[in-house]
Design brief:
heterodimer; A: 261 residues; alpha/beta; 9 helices; 12 strands; 39% helix; B: 67 residues; Ubiquitin-like (UB roll); 5-stranded mixed β-sheet; 1 helix
Chain lengths: 261, 67
């Protein structure tokens, strides 16, 4: 068990609900992932479509905590308003805060993100800010009151994995008391394992599972990878060396090279 | 009747409608949606007393898949 924002969880894998081939595969993938936190969103709804209600009926049966996002918001006002609407619909003060600064790579706007974070925290939201892997930005978000910070591994949906492990390691080292979740860019289970080995508390994935030809099996692969990465971190990694060191004892080696014929 | 912009489309509702009445006329039922008027969130408990003047922009959002 571990704790994040006053909620106790077994799983360290957060999973998105978008892009699956079908609602049934989405549900099966969530179950296979073992995730207890799912991300959701809000979109315009025409009364005759009824899609919102059917999606709601589908996901509320999962039993996972909702982490609504503000995807697509480009200004502080849009993000704050969307967060307020999400709180009413999903009945949670958790919000994955996205304020996008660049349309091409969906890079977060750090200035708008920080401003929106401060406003939402003043309104009693639990802000999970989606941000770049900039140490000072992460520090400022923590200073603003975020108990969780979510730096990206690489741009959303790119599947490029951890592009800058040094930055992520430095954030972990400098913010030991903040819950850190790698969000966005993870493409394969080994990326997730690497993040957990670094000491990240969790990872948030969506495309890597939903866009796999076999999402359910991939969801299980991520579950195992996250567990392996966390166990590796807790066990402690061996020190790296710049030279070889034999693992098999050298004492009693047959045909010892040092012996003269 | 007066005009409203509802999710970017022009719609007509009875003049003098409250937000609650307008949503009803527009066909929104149930609880799985949230509303902003002119970019400002209006919580559900204020829908009945919120008087519309006409030409407001309504955003009506519902749960959807997200990452």
């Amino acid at each position: 068990m571990w704790e994040i924002a006053d909620r106790e969880l077994d799983s360290r894998l957060f999973i998105g609900t978008a892009l699956y081939p079908s609602p049934e595969i989405m549900l099966e993938s969530i179950r296979a992932s073992g995730s207890q936190v799912i991300t959701v969103s809000l979109r315009r709804q025409a009364p005759d479509q009824g899609g919102g209600q059917s999606f709601w009926d589908l996901v509320r049966g999962v039993g996972a905590a909702f982490l609504p996002n503000t995807a697509g918001c480009k200004s502080v006002k849009e993000a704050v308003t969307t967060a307020q609407m999400a709180r009413e619909i999903f009945d949670t003060n958790w919000i994955k805060l996205e304020v996008i600064g660049d349309d091409y790579n969906l890079q977060p706007d750090p200035f708008g993100l920080l401003e929106a974070t401060k406003e939402l925290i003043s309104q009693d939201f639990e802000v999970f800010p989606y941000c770049t892997d900039d140490l000072v930005l992460c520090q400022r978000l923590a200073d603003a009151g975020c108990r969780v910070v979510m730096p990206w591994a690489s741009p959303i949906g790119s599947g490029q994995g951890l592009l800058n492990p040094f930055n992520l390691k430095m954030i972990r080292k400098r913010l030991p008391d903040v819950k850190l979740v790698v969000d966005a860019g993870i493409g394969k289970p080994s990326d997730a394992a690497l993040a957990l080995e670094m000491g990240y508390d969790a990872v948030l994935i969506n495309s890597a599972v939903a866009l796999s030809p076999d999402p359910v099996t991939m969801a299980r692969a991520f579950k195992l990878a996250v567990e392996a990465g966390r166990s590796g971190y807790e066990a402690g990694l061996m020190p790296q060396r710049d030279f070889a060191s034999p693992s098999t004892p050298t004492l009693g080696t047959p045909f010892w090279h040092g012996e003269k014929a | 009747m007066f005009h409203l912009r509802v999710n970017g489309e022009t719609r007509m509702v009875h003049e003098g409608s409250t937000l609650s009445e307008a949503l009803d006329q527009l066909g929104y039922r149930g609880k799985q949606f949230a509303v902003a008027v002119n970019g400002t969130f209006v919580p559900r408990h204020r829908h009945e007393s919120y008087a519309l003047k006409g030409n407001e922009a309504l955003e009506v959002l519902a749960p959807m898949q997200g990452g």
